[in-house]
Design a protein that fits this description.
By secondary structure, the protein is an alpha+beta fold. It has a domain of about 120 residues. The protein is about 60% helix and about 15% strand. It is built from eight helices and three strands; from the N terminus they run H-H-H-H-H-H-H-E-E-H-E. The termini are far apart. The C terminus is likely disordered.
Amino acid sequence: MQPSLKDFLIYRQADTDTIQQAARYYLAERTEDLSPEEMRQRLIQAIGDAKKVDSVLRTFEDDPILAENACLALLSAAWDEAGEVQRIRSAVDSAKTKLPVIEAAIIALVGMYAMYLITTGGVKKSEMTVARNPDGSFIETVTTEYFGPSGPLSTVTSLFHIGKDQSKK
């Protein structure tokens, strides 16, 4: 049986630096090594407001607990995805063996980008239903439920207005 992420992090004695560094490594691998500026640009495109992005990034920089929780949210959401456990294990193990030389600004960006990925790509449950309309045509409805953080991180994820329900005719 696979241990939980919590049990794995306890076993590896992952401190804040390890978690932040591991999230950075994991995110780099998952996004094909996007640079911090490329992540920022994608966030600006998703939100449509550079000032909002920069404001939230400052919030992450000023609140290391929020940044760490965003990193944990990313790792937690990914832990349940098929094939991602080994990538997370490798990222944590790599982070444990290297000196943490990481800027608060980079961690802030990693945390915010993690929330973006969770909000827009961390599918928890997806259901498709087909029904017949009174005129005889069919309607297909797809309902998708995403993993999402609660508490302070929910403010960040609310910035990404991505439709979670889609209907097709």
